[in-house]
Amino acid sequence: MTRLFKAYRVLAMVVGVLLLIGYAALPLYYLVPEGETAQSIGAKMMLVWPVHGWVYIAYVVVAFLLITKAGWKLTALPLTLVAGLVPVLIFWVEHRVAQRLRAEHPELAAA
């Protein structure tokens, strides 16, 4: 597997997991009365958002590089980028990108 492809897959998974944690934190932080244990857990979980932001920036750069190296049109980029902001969607998009890359450019996705 090329390093770029491997980096894309790892970053996509990390971004996806951070999104799930971040979105799970929102109701705990905003809907649970202040001072309760669940609210303080939500507050601690909210720290995931800055981490998600930095990892997402790396994901965007790697996704752009992978798409351009594969020779795909840049119209493939918007869904790839939006996927990093919508929970669960990123896992589906990563799977589709990996499938397409293996089919069209096996040299980029070689093990």
From TrEMBL:
Segments traversing the membrane: 7-26, 46-67, 74-93
Annotated InterPro entries: DUF3817_TM (IPR023845)
Membrane topology note: Multi-pass membrane protein
Protein origin, superkingdom: Bacteria
Domain DUF3817: 6-98
Iron found in the keyword field: no
Compartments it resides in: Cell membrane
Keyword list, A-Z: Cell membrane, Membrane, Transmembrane, Transmembrane helix
Chief localization: membrane
Protein name: DUF3817 domain-containing protein
Organism: Nocardioides panacisoli
